[in-house]
Backbone:
């Protein structure tokens, strides 16, 4: 089956038509356009990937601007890197200029310059399976450009670096090598495996910032088998470069296996539950609590996520004992509702004691959905001044409803009047 036929078979017509149209735009502008990276790799694996990377042998900014105009699409330009993102229904198209890179020292970000040579651009990539291009220009439609034998390595089911200094230049490729190998059930090519072991023995990841290592760990959590990959990182010694205490994971494997299921369960009860924050919180339980915050600050994760993780870890240190002491439904509700939803998730993952799990399940299945029928505006409307009294009124309403007393909206307002004395 030709690559044209493969695209037409596994993708909606819109994807094929989009690639053809982009190729035609490039041709009119005197450029060569190629699909590159994961899209081409996954095409050869006959799996879909709707994040499409397009490389042109010229400046991608004016090219992307013209493409967005013809597609009538939103486009975000990043002048500094000569890249752009175009957003189409059901897919994202990323445009980049062909580039070449020079690593001036191990672990540092490379010096990048534009190049008109497609081989220069493919040579800067991490593995041969990701260094394949697919021409979409009308003169060579859907013709493979594979100077480093990536298609052959896909057939051989192996991860292979492009040159002997690859792991030294960019040690984050050590993490990516295991991630791609696990995702596709590939093995490291023998020479690559030797260089992989040598790079770790020489502490190559120590030259990389915690932010870049955290980004690789974060990508691990997006994989279908994050625990398997974490164990591989740990066995290879890669986790300890993020923090020395990660020589072993202190939480049982079962906990990591259940993160996605617990996050899904809680998502039906709580808005904005973060599966990523839950993974990170569970992982960071393996290090001393006071070392977690500086590590989070250096991680480069979004501020909203690091705040959630830190608040979850802080709550996790005290909430279990408070929950054990809670002797009625209101106390259970108050204890857990004042913590992050991720704290509830973390406790579901880590505790098996009935005196804790029974209360967690009661909260998730029953109590969390109980709310007052009235709002603060309703109380102000009947003449109650804003202030602490409104909080006390809601607390009294909740206490009664949580302990089984049925209340209508009128009942709640009547109780509010009695409490406030109006």
Residues:
């Amino acid at each position: 089956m030709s690559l044209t036929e493969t695209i037409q078979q596994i993708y909606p017509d819109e994807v094929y038509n989009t690639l053809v149209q982009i190729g035609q735009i490039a041709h009119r502008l005197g450029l060569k356009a190629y699909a590159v990276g994961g899209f081409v790799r996954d095409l050869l694996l006959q799996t879909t990937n709707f994040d499409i990377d397009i490389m042109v042998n010229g400046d991608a900014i004016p090219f992307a601007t013209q493409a967005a105009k013809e597609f009538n699409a939103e486009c975000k330009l990043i002048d500094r890197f000569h890249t752009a993102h175009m957003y189409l229904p059901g897919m994202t198209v990323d445009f980049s200029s062909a580039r070449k890179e020079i690593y001036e020292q191990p672990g540092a970000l490379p010096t990048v310059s534009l190049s008109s040579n497609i081989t220069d651009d493919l040579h800067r990539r991490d593995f041969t399976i990701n260094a394949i291009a697919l021409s979409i220009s009308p003169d060579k439609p859907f013709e493979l450009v594979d100077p480093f034998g990536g298609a052959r390595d896909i057939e051989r089911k192996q991860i292979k670096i492009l040159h002997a200094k690859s792991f030294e230049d960019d040690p984050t490729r050590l993490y990516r090598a295991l991630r791609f190998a696990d995702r596709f059930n590939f093995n490291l090519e023998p020479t690559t495996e030797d260089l992989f072991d040598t790079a770790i023995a020489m502490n190559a990841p120590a030259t990389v910032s915690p932010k870049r290592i955290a980004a690789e760990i974060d990508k691990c959590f997006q994989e279908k088998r994050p625990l398997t990959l974490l164990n591989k990182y740990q066995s290879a010694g890669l986790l300890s470069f993020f923090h020395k205490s990660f020589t072993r994971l202190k939480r049982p494997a079962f906990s990591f296996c259940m993160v996605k299921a617990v996050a899904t369960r809680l998502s039906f009860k709580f808005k904005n539950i973060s599966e990523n924050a839950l993974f990170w919180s569970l992982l960071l339980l393996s290090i001393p609590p006071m070392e977690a915050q500086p590590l989070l600050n250096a991680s480069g994760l979004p501020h909203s996520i690091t705040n959630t993780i830190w608040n979850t870890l802080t709550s996790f240190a005290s909430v279990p004992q408070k929950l054990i002491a809670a002797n009625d439904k209101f106390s259970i509700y108050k204890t857990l509702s004042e913590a992050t939803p991720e704290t509830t998730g973390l406790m579901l993952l880590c505790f098996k004691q009935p005196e804790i799990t029974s209360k967690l399940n009661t909260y998730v299945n029953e109590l969390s959905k109980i709310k007052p029928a009235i709002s603060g505006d309703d109380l102000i409307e009947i003449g109650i001044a804003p202030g602490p009294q409104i909080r006390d009124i809601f607390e009294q309403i909740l206490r009664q409803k949580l302990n089984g007393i049925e209340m209508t909206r009128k009942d709640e307002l009547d109780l509010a009047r009695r409490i406030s004395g109006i």
In short: The radius of gyration is 27 Å. Residues 3 and 375 are 60 Å apart (CA to CA). The chain has 23 helices and eleven strands.
